[in-house]
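User: Some background: our group keeps a shared notebook of sequences we're curious about, and every so often someone picks one and asks for a predicted structure to add to the entry. Today it's my turn. The entry only has the sequence so far, pasted here. Could you supply the structure so I can complete it?
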Amino acid sequence: MNILLTCKRHYTNKDLISDRFGRLFHFPKVWSEKGNQVTVLAADYLSFRNRTYQIEGITFYSLGFPSFGVDFLHRINAIAHAGKYDLVIGSCDSHFGYIALKLAKKLGIPYAFDLYHHYADFGTNRIPGMKSMYYRSLSNADLVVCDSKPLEGKIRSYNNHTHIAPQGTDPSVFKPLPREQCIKELRLDPARKYIGYTGTLDSRFDYDCLIQAMETITGNDSSICLLIAGTKLSGYNLNREFIHYLGELPQERIPVVINACRVMCIPYKLTDLASTCNPCKLSEYIACGLPIVASAISNVTDYLPASRELCYTPGDAASLAESLLRQIAAPVTETLNQELTWETIGSAYLDELYKLHKGNLRTRS
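Assistant: Of course. Here's the predicted structure to add to the notebook entry:
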């Protein structure tokens, strides 16, 4: 099967090509390893250049920002018509879903829309026409792939041909490492006990709640410190005595950060985006064997059966502080099962794509 995927190159604070990050790298990798041809068209908003890469058997076209427009559409049309593709997938935002839909109609092949958020809630969807493209893409997709059960429930009224493919992890990268070694590698203070957070500090990140919790915790134990690695948005003051901010690190360094900590936290507000999200960091923390404290958003508690009671109501700083202290004193960890690996999730996803392809062949015949 020959698969075409349209998306953007940078999402969250990672680059899917150089960081080999996230579902838009790992799913194509799984599909390629199983004998399929996969081409990824990735719009690069941070570059002026068009480049082509061959990675893990996948062809990546990185299309620079100035070409996004008429030239971009000409380029992807040329690539799409030259490749004899069997199906096309759109992901990352409303307009990429719509581009994939239009390509599929021109080529007479099935179309899947991959959602790792409810894209209508993105800031970009304030642009006139974006939400219209989103809902049109949803309604006309042969398959809608969602990263969480709550997200599937939210879009069911637009399309009931759905499949859930949650965010996974690569256990060869995210795995337990000696804490002392990681602390030394990051040049941290071995006398401190670190509570960790990795990822973008975006609108979901509940800074106020976390700071209040840390003030309570460090008032009783000044050796406890908050360790953060990721992109900092404006408005967050990380120059606090109990915060050690590492900045944005490459993906291969994140397991070191996680394993330097005593407990990892996912302190999310109950925003529209958070209510249906399936954070990548959740499976990564589990894979590293770290205790986790998360706010009870979306269906996060489904992934934390052993420590579910330690999840807290979003915004409840006292409960967050209590759960963090309990996890430091008597750690409760989760067990990574194969259902959370990119290999397993990507294989089930591929089975759904095979069904689309075979159904299309029957229609043609």
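Suggested note for the entry: The first strand starts at residue 2 and ends at 8. The mean pLDDT is 93.
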